[in-house]
Amino acid sequence: MKALVAVKRVVDFNVKVRVKADGSGLDIGNVKMSMNPFDECAIEEAVRLKEAGKINEIVAVSLGEKKCEDVLRTALAMGADRAIHVETDEELDSRAVSKILQKIVEKEQPQIILLGKQAIDDDANQTAQRLAALLNAPQATFASKVEVNNDEIVVTREIDGGVETLALKLPAVISADLRLNEPRFVKLPNLMAAKKKTLEKQSIEDLNVDISGSLKTVSVAEPKARQAGVKVANVSELIEKLAAANAI
Amino acid sequence: MTVLIVAEHNGKQLATATLNAITAAQKLGEVHVLVAGSDCLNLVEQVSKINGVAKVLHADAPHFAELLAEEIAPLVVSLAAPYTHLVAAASAFGKNIMPRVAALLDCSQVSDLTEIVDEKTFVRPIYAGNAFVTVQSDEPKLVLTIRASAFSAAVSGSQNAPIEAVMATPAQDLSRFVGRELTASDRPELTQARVVVSGGRAFGSAEQFDALLTPLADTLGAAIGASRAAVDAEYAPNDMQVGQTGKIVAPELYFAIGISGAIQHTAGMQDSKIIVAINKDPDAQIFNVADFGIVGDLFEIVPELTKQLQNR
User: Fold this and answer.
1) Which residues in chain A are contacts of B244 at CB distance < 8 A?
2) 3-class state of residue B84 by DSSP
3) What is the value of pTM for the model shown?
4) Whole-Å CA distances, A36 to A28, A41, B126, B287
5) What chain A residue is nearest to B219 in terms of C-alpha separation?
6) Pair A167, A183: CB distance under 8 Å
7) How far apart are CA B16 and CA B102, in angstroms?
8) Which chain A residue has the Cα nearest residue B142?
9) DSSP result, A6-43
10) Quick check: B239 and A239 CB within 8 A?
11) Which string of b and e fits B236-253 if b means at least 16 CB within 10 Å?
C-alpha cells in the first residue's frame, strides 16, 4: 500500500508575524520558515504505518517556491521514500492546492492520503476536505488515531464535545490533528541520507491544472489591540474590580 | 440574495453555533436552513420558529443520521442552485463538511469569517489571529463558515417558517459510522458560556486541575477550558482546549490560570470582554492581554478566589 503526504512550508509557529504598514500583507521576508506542525504529524503517522508494515512506500509532496525543497528534505529525513515538488511562485489557496494534489494523486494512485488539518499561516482548514471531494474519496478530518485494516481504515477524529470513529473505504483522505502522534526529531545522519533520495520536480503546466479563481486579498490589518490592563495586589481587589465592571 | 445554512444538530437539538450563523447570514439576504437527518421532525419544527429563518428544508434519510461529510455534501450540492451563499458555523461539523461542498461546486470558501462587509467581502483571521485579512470574490456562489463567537445567537419567536421536504440524495457508502464518545458535562457549553475558567500546565496534575477549577467554575456558573499544554498533559480532555487549534471563545469573563499566554492560546480567547490572568511569572505574555492580573501562586489564589466569591 502506498501513502501520499502533503506538506507545506510556513512561517515557524514561534514567530510573531507583523502586518506591513501599508496593509498589503505580512512582513515575512526574513523570518524562520518550517514545516507546518500538522503536516509533521501527517508524515510521522505515515512513517509509523510503514514501520508497522501496513504500507510500503511514502511519497511526500509540497507545492510552492524553490525553498519548499527544505521541508521535503525534512520529510525524507523523517522517513518518506521520495518527494515531489510542484515548483511555482504563484500564491496558491486551498482551492488551487487541492486541484494540483488531485492530479498528483491520480498519477501516483496512493491508497492513503495524509495532510495536516490546517496550515498555521492561512488557517483555512480546507485542503484535505476539498481533495477528498475531488477524488470522490471518503475523508476523516482532525484524526487523533488511525488503524489500517485490509480494505478499510478506521479513524478516530476529534469533534466538538468528544471523539467519533469512522471506517473509511480506500483510498481515503485523512487530516492530522496535533494529538495524532508526536513527530520524531530529524537526526543529522538521516538528513544527510535524505539528500540521496529522489526529489522529482513538476510544474503546474505539466500537470495541466486550472488554478484561476482565488479569493482576492483587499487588505491585511493588525487585530484590534486590547487596552492595557492593570495588575491587582490580591483577590479582594480583583473581586472589587470585577464587580465594578459588572462582570460578576 | 438567498442563503442556505446547513444546520448542525444531534437529532434532537440544534447546535447553538448554527444560531450564530443564522444571525450572520441575515446580513446577506433571505435565510433558509437545511436540516438533514433521520427521523427528526421535532427538530425541524423547532428550527421553523427561529427568528430570521424564512424557510426550512428538511431532508430525511437513514444515511443522514450521523451527518457524515460524504453524505451531507452531495445533498447540499443538490440544493445549491438558487443560493448565492452556502453557510455553516465554523465548528468541527462546518469545517468538515463545507470545504467538501465548495470543492464539489468548484467555488471558493471563506473560512471562519468574523465580519461580513458586504455580500462579496469578508474579514477573517489568519496567522492564529495575529492578522485579519479582508477578502473579496466576484464568484456567483460562495461557501462561508462563520466564527460563532463573532455574532450573537438568533432567538426563537412565535413565527412558523414554512417547512419543505426535499429529496434525499442516494447513500454514497464511502464511509461507515462506528461510534461516538462524548465527554459528559453538566456545565455550560464552552463556546457559549458567559464565564470561562481555563487552566494550564501550572496545575501539575489532573487531580489538582479538577480540585481547584471545578469549585471555581461551579461558583461562577462557568465552563472549564484548558491550554494545549494542559490537554497534552491529560489534565483535561481535548475538546476543552481553547486556542488556534481548539475552540474559539469570547465570553464576558475569561480566567486564564497558570497559562503563559502563547499566541496559539490567545488566538482562541482574545475577544473575551474581560480577561483575568493568574500567573506566578510577572513577565508571562498573558498579562499583555489581561484586563486584570494577579501575580502569585495559583494554589493559594484560586481557593481564596473561590471562597471570596462564595461569600459574596
Assistant:
1) 120, 123
2) coil
3) 0.94
4) 15, 9, 14, 28
5) A248
6) no
7) 23
8) A215
9) E--EEE-TT----B-TTSSSB--TTS-EEE-HHHHHHH
10) no
11) bbbbbbbbbbbbbbbbeb
Q: Is the ipTM of this complex over 0.85?
A: yes
Q: Is B49 exposed, middle or buried (0-12, 13-18, 19+ CB in 10 A)?
A: middle
**Inter-chain CB proximity B179 and A165 less than 8 Å:** yes
pLDDT tens for each residue of chain B, 312 residues long: 999 999 999 999 999 999 999 999 999 999 999 999 999 999 999 999 999 999 999 999 999 999 999 999 999 999 999 999 999 999 999 999 999 999 999 999 999 999 999 999 999 999 999 999 999 999 999 999 999 999 999 999 999 999 999 999 999 999 999 999 998 888 999 998 999 999 999 999 999 999 999 999 999 999 999 999 999 999 999 999 999 889 999 999 999 999 999 999 999 999 999 999 999 999 999 999 999 999 999 999 999 999 999 998
Note whether B112 contacts A123, CB cutoff 8 Å. Answer: yes
Strands (DSSP E) contained in A121-184 are 139-148, 152-159, 162-169, 172-176
CB contact under 8 A, A93 and B177: no
Enter the C-alpha cell of residue B237: 480532555
Using the structure block, give the residue that is written with the C-alpha cell 448554527.
B18
